[in-house]
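Section 3.1: Structural characterization of target chains.
Under the original work plan, the team committed to producing a structural model for every single-chain target entering the pipeline before any wet-lab resources were allocated. The record below documents one such target. The sequence was received from the expression subgroup and is listed exactly as submitted; it comprises 202 residues.
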Amino acid sequence: MNLDQYLDALRGNRAFMSCVTHWETLPAQDARYMDLPLGLSAPIVEALKKRGIYQLYTHQRQAVDAALAGDNVTIVTPTASGKTYCYNLPVLETILRSRSSRALYLFPTKALAADQNTELNELIRDAVSVNPPPMHRGRQLKILFMTQTDICPPKFIIFVNDPELMHFSYLRFIENRLREQFGFEGTPLRLIVRARKEEEDY
């Protein structure tokens, strides 16, 4: 069942629809951009440009401007919509202006972990679809899922049907995809391959 079919099934479910007061499909929109904030310190501008970022999404620019003006800011956007820049840019700018400044980051770790695991496993599925693991002695490597367990250095556990089927070249392929997706260029990564039965819960 694809997403459209699932939504159709929900809409045809009387019990579910009895809890719905309004149903609307919003059309896709092109991304809207704004220039980098005026007065943003040169080191930050240079760092952004090195990452290929010459403009911000409108919600990022508005959030940065408001935060630097001392306003309280709430951002409600989907995963991977660039919220990180909304708070990191004002923090970095404030520290550059006053080296005695401090920032306290509080995160809902379980929600973040769930989002991160979703992204990691989407990456694995995409990687396997683009470059399926080769057969080894008539057996097929199956990558079941991946999770991150440490950050210093970043450590990832890849669960497979049989670790002996994981060739070092394919592990390097996965490592390169991680680096491209999450900006780990120049960062040492630890990838550990472990066995897990397909029928086990995870």
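The mean pLDDT is 87.
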